[in-house]
């Protein structure tokens, strides 16, 4: 996995079988890599999920795997509800939540990584998010 994680690449597409860890393990791997490189305090990962229930349940699972309470380094944000703290470095949210953030923060200031999960479940929000994120990439 480390060979594909190169700062030269701004976009990486991950494809794998159901249950192989794309949703739960990849974000943790990125966070742990940033911590090992002494960039953990600067790391801010947003991982989108197509549905509220998946954003919440995945965040609960990842926090449990970290051996911590939800809202510490791992949190979630869905419409009208969220659990995150000052030290949250990995935030699971719905696609709509990230789109609303982009309305007020076009540059995603402070965000170091964006993971658009379950993109094969294409919808209008997901397609629009990809267009907006593409425009954020440095040319």
UniProtKB/TrEMBL annotation:
Q: Does the keyword Nucleotide-binding apply?
A: yes
Q: What class of enzyme is it?
A: hydrolase
* Nucleotide-binding is among the record's keywords: yes
Q: Which residues form the Helicase ATP-binding domain?
A: 3-139
Write down the SUPFAM superfamilies for this protein, in alphabetical order: P-loop containing nucleoside triphosphate hydrolases
- Quote the EC number: 3.6.4.13
Q: Which UniProt keywords apply?
A: ATP-binding, Helicase, Hydrolase, Nucleotide-binding, RNA-binding
Q: Which cellular component terms (GO) are annotated to the entry?
A: nucleus
* InterPro entries hit by this protein: DEAD/DEAH_box_helicase_dom, Helicase_ATP-bd, P-loop_NTPase
What transmembrane ranges does the database entry give? Answer: none
Tell me a Gene Ontology molecular-function term this record carries: RNA binding
Which PANTHER family does UniProt cross-reference here? Answer: ATP-DEPENDENT RNA HELICASE, DEXH-BOX ATP-DEPENDENT RNA HELICASE DEXH3
> Which family does this protein fall into?
Belongs to the DExH box helicase family.
- What is the recorded name of this protein? RNA helicase
Q: Which organism is it from?
A: Trifolium medium
